[in-house]
Structures are given as structure tokens and as C-alpha cells.
Design brief:
By secondary structure, the protein is mainly α. The protein is 46% helix and 0% strand. The chain is built from six helices and no strands. The protein is elongated and about 115 Å long. The N and C termini lie far apart (92 Å).
Amino acid sequence: MTTPPVEPETTRNTGVTPGQRLRQARERLELDLAEVAGSLRLSTTAVEALERDDYHSFAAPAYTRGYLRNYARLVNVSEALILTHLDDADHTRNIPEIRSYGSRFERSEPHIGRWIALLLALLLGGALWFAFTQGWLSRDNTTSETTPNSQIIDLDTPR
């Protein structure tokens, strides 16, 4: 069960940025940066960046929104209030877009998996062929060795 948010929705347009609001809530709860960073599994510099509304150090807008949402939960501030205020104040313009590095790092051989599978199939086929031609695998279950005549017992003749 979660505790109700500390701040009501009516404080939305007070001119306080999301980072300032989170810092005020943290200080009200008497939490230091290290405690918040440990709870959020972020570095203290990342928490400081959130409190300064400096989102350039984060990889993508989705990460920044997630960090803000988790921080708001931690200090009992309405997540919707933080994210709405973030959107209303257009603080998202400071959040860098996701960068794609796909075209920079081309694979040298795109079908390497197929070549490996083909090589393994050929090796397995060759090993089976060799075993069959050497007599290690035969079609019948009889052995090539015969039992000596001295050990053959004739069951039809009485003793």
C-alpha cells in the first residue's frame, strides 16, 4: 500500500520545476543525496542532475521520465504532478534524443551463424559416414565375431 502524495494537484502551477519540487520533498523528509541515490540505484551526480533539471547526462527521455517517476515515489510526491509539470514547462526540450549507432557498427559477416551451422552439419555428416564405413555402425545387430565351435551347445542331441 502506498502513502498518499504529500503535495496536492493544485500546487501544479507554482513555477517550481520538477527537480526543485523533488529536492524540496527530499529535504522535508530529511534524506541526503546518498540515501536517495542508493534507493534509486543511481549515482549521486545523477540525482543532483535530476534536482537541477539537467537531463543531458541521461541516455534518453524515457530513462529521464522513469528516474523522475521513481524519485517522486520515493519522496511521496505525485508522479503525475512531476511528469505533468515536466511536460507543461517543456523541460523535455533539455532531454537529448536517443542516438542510434547501428549504421556506424556494421557486422563484417552478416550470415556467420549460417556458415557455422553448415560447417557443423558437414562435420557431423562426415563423422557418421566415416563411422558407418569403418563398421562402427552397422545395419544389423550381429557382431562380426563368431563364437568358437567348442562353446556351441547342440540342444537337440541328448547327453
